[in-house]
C-alpha cells in the first residue's frame, strides 16, 4: 500500500497530466459516477438519445476505466469500456463536456496449451493457467455433451486452442474457444467452433445446449448481435446487444429455455418486454411484443418452447420483429454462441466445409499435444497509478 501511495505521488509530481485507472464499484451507476466526479448530467446523460442512454447502463462492476486529469487536476477525458469492443468517451472541448461511443482498439492472438488431467477439467485448467475464464469457456462449450463427473481419469490429456484479446498488452474480455480435445477413459472427445459460430463434435453433430435456437419459429434474422457497429445514417457508433427476428405481427414467441418470468410489462424503448431467468446466471429478454400470452406474469415458471407472447412493434421499433437478448450475469452475450439446436447435424456442403476446418484444427491439436505446449503466463499489469483519491478517503 505504501509503495502504491509513493508511486501515486511520484507520478502526479512528475507529469503535467496523468492517466489514472479505476475500478467500477459494485452498485455504481453511470449517474452516480457523473455526480461523484462533479460532471454535468444534462449534456452527458439527459441530452443523449435513448440508445446512448441505454449504453450507459452497460457498465459492469469490476471493469477498469481510465481518467485523464490535467495538471490542475481537472478531468480532461474519460474512457469507460462497455464491452470488449465499445467504450464511452467523455471529453472536454471548448469548456464543455461531450459524450461519444467509440471502438476499443485491440489485437487478438490465438493461443494454445496441452495439459494432463489432475482432477475435474475446471480444476485442471485453473491449475495450469490460473484463469477462471479459460476454465469457464471449456466447460461451457462441452456443456451437457460429456459427463465430467464419472469419466475423468487422472493423467489423461486435455488440449485447448482459443483466441484472446489484448489491449495495452493486457489480456481482456472473455477468450473464445476455437477447438479442444479431452481424453476420457482413453477415448478422445473433440469440439470445434464452426464458421456458423456454433460448436460441433468430431462427427459434425451440434453440441447440445439448454436453449432453443429460435424463439420465433421460422423467422428470419434481420439483425445480428454486435458489440459495436457504425451507424451509416446517424454517423455514430452503436451496439446491438441482441438478435432481431423479423416476423409477422402476432406470430407466437416461445421461451428459449425453461425458467422463471421476472418481468412482463412495458419497459422504455424495449416496449412490451418479457425477461426470463434461467439457471447459471442466464437471462433472456423478448422485446417489442404486441402482447403477452395470458398468464405470463412475474414469478410464473415457463418451460422451454412454451408460448409467452406475440410479435409486435411496441417501444422503439421500426416494424414488427422480436428483439431477443441473452444475458449472463447481466452482461449481454451473443445468443448464437450459446443458444443451440439439440438435433442439428451438418449435411452436404456445410459438412464438407466443416470437415476441412476440423482437419486443420486436428493438426493443431495434435501438434500441441505432442509438443506438450505449456500455457504462457502473462506479466502482471504495471500498476502505476491505481488509487482513486475519492474512494481512498471513504
Ligand atoms: Zn434489436
In words, what does this structure look like?
- By secondary structure, the protein is of the alpha+beta class.
- The chain folds into three domains: 2-105, Nuclear Transport Factor 2, Chain: A (Roll), CATH 3.10.450.350; 107-209 and 342-370, Roll (Nuclear Transport Factor 2, Chain: A), CATH 3.10.450.350; 220-338, Glucose Permease (Domain IIA) (Distorted Sandwich).
- It has helices at residues 2-14, 30-36, 41-46, 50-55, 121-129, 132-142, 335-338, 348-370, 389-393, and strands spanning 18-23, 64-69, 75-81, 86-93, 96-103, 107-116, 157-167, 170-184, 187-193, 199-200, 220-223, 226-231, 236-240, 243-246, 252-254, 259-266, 272-277, 282-289, 291-292, 301-302, 307-310, 321-328, 331-333.
- The longest helix is centred in the last third of the chain and has 23 residues, at 348-370.
- It is globular and about 65 Å long.
- 27% of the residues are buried.
- The structure holds zinc ion (ZN).
- Zinc ion binds at residues 223, 240, 242, 244, 323.
How would you describe this structure in keywords?
single chain, 394 residues, alpha+beta, Nuclear Transport Factor 2, Chain: A, Glucose Permease (Domain IIA), 3 domains, 8-stranded antiparallel sheet, 5-stranded antiparallel sheet, 9 helices, 21% helix, globular, disordered N terminus, binds zinc ion
